Amino acid sequence: MRIVFKTSYDADIRLFKHNAQAFWYLLLFAFAILLPFLVSDFLIGEATLVLIWAICGMGLMLLVGQTGQASLGHAAFMAVGAYSNVIYQLNFNMPFLLSFPLAGLTAGVAGALVALPTTRLHGIYLAIATLAISVLTEDIIIILEPITGGIAGIFAPDIEIFGYTFNRYGNPVELYWLVLAITFIVIYAYRNILRSPTGRAFAAVRDSEVSAKAMGVNVARTKMVAFAISCTITGLGGALMGHFATVFTNETFNLIISITLLLIIVVGGLGTIHGAFFGSIVFVMLPLMISLTRDAVGSLTGSGSITIPGLESGIFGAILIGFILFEPMGLYGRWLKIRTYFELFPFYRKDMFRRQKSYLKTERTR
Known about the structure:
Elements (H helix, E strand, L loop, with lengths): L8 H4 L6 H16 L6 H24 L9 H18 L4 H23 L4 H21 L1 H4 L5 E2 L3 E3 L2 E3 L5 H24 L1 H11 L1 H6 L4 H27 L1 E2 L6 H14 L4 H29 L9 H16 L3 H15 L22
Organism: Hoeflea poritis
Main location: membrane
Protein name: Branched-chain amino acid ABC transporter permease
């Protein structure tokens, strides 16, 4: 068991708790770089998709897990990022290095505009408002057909950086490394936001808005900033998703995608960067495992491959219900419990991670 003594505020907000943790994360990053030399191109494509979903998941995690604001409309901001990125490249001849951050900024501005009338909403009312935005986005894409392509969709060109082309099918390994680099930058920015006064304000609003106001936090402004940053990160993920999908329409970023994002962060573990990655791995790899299992069962029984409509959605729903009921801290929370058990054995207590109430007595009448 490792004991960390914190003697100053700087020690409490340092990027890594101790040098051993920094070593393990460095080793993990090195493994991610070397992964293309260890697996096939197909699995590299799946790993790229995991990273893209993780970026989108981190965007929603910042809003739901760090600030405590429910959202069922983040697919809309993925669409804003994807469409604006391609439109900037095709209509304004912008290079990817310029269109990509501008796409994220566009999604962030859209999120801030949405947050202006919704910052005073709470819980289910905020979720319904964002749900309406997700539904309206599909209609807006059709209305703006001259720009967005409408139901015919829009084609995302290859990514070009300094004359080098990145394509999902032409050079999947190079695309994986590019997405990995972007993911690393997003993680670093996300981590530093949480260490800043703004990140502390997010946590204060999440834990108790009444207490946050008492400490001088502008709750409405904090929610709007959280919404803007969250949508910016989600927009970046949507821009990458557009290039990964190559062609996308108004139905690509639908309500199911918003629910999927929520499933990813709940299954992975709310309030942690790790949760976005664990949830993305489950979401991307589970259909592959279902397909392999279905083929194996079909070959054993001699009945061939059997397709059951709605099987994946049913399994995803069952997994989500199971985690909410039996492991609300998600996969990362389960890992923390296992690690703590071995660190403290035989002094581990079963109720160490007992769920706490998310409100104070002063907020029960709100």
